[in-house]
Amino acid sequence: MPYDDTDLTPKLAEAARQVEICNACRYCEGYCAVFPAMFKERAFGAGDLTQLANLCHNCRGCYYACQYTEPHEFALNLPAALAEARHETWERFAWPAAPARLFQRSGVALATALVFGIAALFWAAAALAPASGDGFYAVLAHGTMVAIFLPAFLLPLVAICIGLRRYWTEVGGQRITLAHLRDAGRSAATMRNLAGGQGQGCNFEDEDRFTNARRHAHQAVMWGFLLCFASTASGTVLHYVFDMPAPYGLFSLPKLLGVPGGLLLTIGTAALVRLKIKADPALGAPALWGAEMAFVLLLGLTGLTGLMLYAATGTTFVAPLLAIHLGAVLTFFLSTPYSKMAHGFYRMAALIRDAQVKRG
């Protein structure tokens, strides 16, 4: 739809300028889902730009192929323009707004929250330890864990749902069908948009090097997180439905899901940290580099401390490791709607919306 750029924020206006040039050039057709979606339009409103920004996976292949980057007068840097617009949408849609501004601006906020979360749980472990119990429950009562973590899980989930509803309204989302979910799920599961135009991968690390390293690292993190979540869910079912409380043996469902999940999560985040250090920050949102790195490290710490806690079973290290692990998990949950973790939800919504447009 036609737009008046005075109605756009400065970041969206810059994204619109660059997208219109790309739409006229069309050299990057087929690089990722952004360009087919872009080429369907003739003019771009706020909703169109929001959708394109969240559909972008920041693989950077288009930048290195572009003939209009600096020193050309057009000075295109589409990955950076869409990254800035994308982060702005997360902040704009977030509820409540104040924590979003805090977490988007600095990774220090995440680190501070983690420290305070760990300190609080150390206090809880010492002051609220039950008189008896097995495994973790000998350090922190089951009821105390539930009282702390149930609200810490549900309240951020509500905040995410509010943000996604705002996003869906702005991009003109329609009724979701199973076909839309199937198309989007297939794309997310395979990380197809990180495969590059020819399937040889993207050059996130280096202009001249095409690799699937970032794609594989993202897949490891995604599947590791899902396995860890499934492990927790299966433990909850065993506890409440079958009256089988923790601790669980190595060949129990929680451990068969959780141990591989923790390994994938730890390895994947370590790979993402390495890639992020090597990549050019000017092709993303430089002001938010620290916040993004803090999120990846926090996610990795969650997986690593979970593995260490299992390895320390029956030793004196259980209490301090449990406090650190629960502090990391608690901070992760509370920061989810405001940290880069939100990108997973918005990107899935963007893929669903893209599937709707493709299916007409």
UniProtKB/TrEMBL annotation:
The chain crosses the membrane at residues 108-129, 135-164, 220-242, 257-275, 287-311, 317-338. Keywords: Membrane, Transmembrane, Transmembrane helix. The keyword Membrane applies. SUPFAM superfamilies: 4Fe-4S ferredoxins (SSF54862), Respiratory nitrate reductase 1 gamma chain (SSF103501). This is Tricarballylate utilization 4Fe-4S protein TcuB. It comes from Thalassococcus profundi. The gene is tcuB.
